């Protein structure tokens, strides 16, 4: 790989601390990644030098803020290879982006008797908005099941898709299992019956190259904080032909061109979907995160993370009493597991005292837990700055936890 791991770790101020007198090993990256200094500096620079509202001012600060805000949009367009910056809508995150599509596109195009198809491994954010929509309009939510390896039962997809299917919501990379789904094949099959496809890429964009035009997805969503950027900012990609005819999700300032008490004329894309003062600092930080990813190379990062995952799986398979949850042939960045005799929440607390941050719980994917018959899992998830030494520390601490409860 072309980057030096110690040099790369030097980009992240938060990593250089001790927790309970132990070196911090941060292995909760599927929940949120840490932020490089370049992102922190970009946000601080905006507040120290350019703090002003965007699109509305004619003074220098507003012009600089607007230029940085729109530059971030172009960086994200290039990152996912959207055809136009008009197709990049800034939202509060992947969750709001899915809700935007469900409310705006869904309310217009889905009605009684129609069907929405999601998978059993979806995050709650790609289940609940569609449930709410189906309840409102009288549609039916269908589910593509998973097998005991944590892979989609693709052999059942053709039977679930039909002329009543209006939308398919599918996760690109599972936050609970690490499974990488064959989204291109799903999109092709969905389009063959006239359905639109929304891909939840919240976990994917920091760990693999994403090309929305090559995928031919109709919508793609992600969150900055999963990809080394700030919290509270994300994006919705949508095909311009779809976004043009969708009604606004919210009303307010900046999403209009003219307002009278008799009628309102809406702004052009992408501003039609960005009502009110946006998260300007977060958006600029998002752009800086894209720069950081590009500078270090997503392919390089992915190769490093895959080596970490393989190393962790090797240790897990040899660890007595440990059960890996999710053994898909194609997976990345996530090791979910249970340890015999130790509740995942207890395990998370014990590891925290060793300076090791993991996630314990249902990971906003309760149907996955129900499938595997567990209340929760422990989850270690890896990012560019993690090391094999941190994985060694994880398993040493797991050994002490096992001995304690034995």
Describe the structure in your own words.
The two termini are 41 Å apart. This protein folds into two domains: 5-30 and 297-398, Aspartate Aminotransferase, domain 1; 40-294, Aspartate Aminotransferase, domain 2 (3-Layer(aba) Sandwich). The strands form five sheets. It has a seven-stranded mixed sheet with strand order 4-10-9-8-7-5-6, with helices on both faces. The protein is α/β, with parallel strands linked by helices. Strand 7 (165-171), helix 7 and strand 8 form a beta-alpha-beta unit. The radius of gyration is 22 Å and the shape is globular. Helix 2 (37-50) runs antiparallel to helix 10 (280-296) and helix 3 packs across helix 10. It is built from 14 helices and 17 strands. 48% of the residues are buried.
Summarize the structure.
With 406 residues, the chain is of the alpha/beta class. Helix content is 40%, strand content 17%.
Secondary structure: elements and pairs:
Blueprint lengths: L4 H5 L8 E2 L2 E2 L1 E2 L10 H14 L9 H21 L7 E4 L2 H16 L5 E5 L8 H10 L2 E5 L12 H4 L4 E7 L11 H10 L3 E5 L11 H4 L3 E5 L10 E5 L1 H6 L10 E4 L4 E3 L13 H17 L1 H20 L4 E3 L9 E6 L4 H10 L2 E2 L1 E3 L4 H7 L4 E5 L6 H18 L1
Tell how many strands the DSSP assignment holds: 17
Taking the alpha carbons of the first and last residues, their distance comes to: 41 Å
Radius of gyration: 22 Å
Provide the β-strand percentage band: 15-25%
Can you tell me the CATH topology of the largest domain? Aspartate Aminotransferase, domain 2
Please give the CATH class of the largest domain. Alpha Beta
């Amino acid at each position: 790989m072309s980057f030096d791991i110690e040099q790369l770790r030097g980009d992240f101020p938060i990593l250089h601390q001790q927790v309970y007198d132990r070196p911090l090993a941060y292995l909760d990256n599927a929940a949120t990644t840490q932020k490089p200094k370049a992102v922190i500096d970009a946000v601080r620079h905006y507040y120290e030098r350019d703090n002003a509202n965007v699109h509305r001012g004619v003074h220098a600060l507003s012009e600089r803020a607007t230029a940085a805000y729109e530059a971030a949009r172009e960086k994200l367009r290039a990152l996912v290879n959207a055809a136009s910056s008009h197709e990049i809508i800034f939202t509060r995150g992947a969750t709001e982006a899915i809700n935007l599509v469900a409310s705006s596109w869904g309310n217009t195009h889905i009605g009684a008797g129609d069907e929405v198809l999601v998978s059993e491994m979806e995050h709650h954010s790609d289940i609940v908005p569609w449930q709410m929509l189906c309840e409102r309009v009288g549609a039916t939510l269908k589910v593509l099941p998973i097998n005991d390896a944590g892979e989609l039962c693709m052999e059942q997809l053709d039977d679930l898709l039909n002329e009543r299917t209006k939308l398919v919501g599918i996760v690109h990379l599972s936050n609970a299992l690490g499974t990488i789904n064959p989204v291109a094949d799903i999109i092709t099959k969905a389009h063959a019956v006239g359905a639109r496809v929304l891909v939840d890429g919240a976990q994917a964009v920091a760990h693999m190259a994403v090309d929305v035009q090559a995928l031919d997805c109709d919508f793609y969503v992600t969150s900055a904080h999963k990809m080394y950027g700030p919290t509270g900012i994300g994006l919705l990609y949508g095909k311009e032909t779809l976004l043009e005819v969708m009604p606004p999700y919210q009303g307010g300032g900046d999403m209009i061109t003219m307002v009278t008490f008799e009628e309102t004329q809406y702004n052009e894309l992408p501003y039609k979907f960005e009502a009110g003062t946006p998260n300007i600092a977060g958006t600029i930080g998002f752009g800086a995160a894209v720069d950081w990813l590009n500078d270090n190379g997503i392919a390089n990062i992915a190769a490093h993370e895959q080596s970490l995952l393989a190393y962790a799986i090797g240790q897990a398979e040899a660890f007595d009493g440990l059960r890996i949850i999710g053994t898909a042939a194609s997976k990345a960045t996530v090791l979910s597991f249970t340890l015999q005799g130790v509740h995942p929440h207890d395990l998370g607390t014990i590891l925290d005292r060793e300076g090791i941050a993991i996630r314990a719980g249902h990971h906003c994917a309760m149907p996955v837990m129900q499938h595997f018959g567990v209340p929760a899992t422990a989850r270690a998830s890896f990012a560019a700055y993690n090391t094999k030494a941190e994985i060694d520390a994880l398993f040493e601490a797991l050994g002490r936890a096992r001995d304690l409860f034995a």
